[in-house]
Every structure is written in structure tokens, then in C-alpha cells.
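Dear colleague,

Thank you for sharing your sequence with our group. We've completed the structure prediction you requested, and as agreed, I am returning the results in plain text so they can be pasted directly into your records. Please verify that the sequence below matches your submission; if there's any discrepancy, let me know and we will rerun it promptly.
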Amino acid sequence: MFRLIRLPIMFGVAFVLGVMSERNAALDKCLDAGGVMTSGVCRGVSRGVSE
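Please find the predicted C-alpha cells below.
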């Protein structure tokens, strides 16, 4: 019985950790490009800038 409860809990934890990891990666990319993160949206970076 415990295995049936543990499986969705593990999937939920993995999902939350994945979302947090992606948000952190997006923040790093935004800051590296010279922008600022506001409400989950990167602002202050020109789209036409190439390296």
C-alpha cells in the first residue's frame, strides 16, 4: 500500500525540483545576457543582439 502512495509523491517531488532547476537556469541566462528577471519574465535584453 505504501508503494502506491510513495510513487506519486516521488513524481511530484521530481517535477517540482525540475521546475526549480529550469527557473534557475533561465535566471542565469537572463542575468548573463544583461537583463533582469521580473515576475518570471526576462526584461532588458535586446532580441537582435548576437555574440
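Summary note from our side: The CA atoms of residues 5 and 29 lie 37 Å apart.

Kind regards,
the structure core
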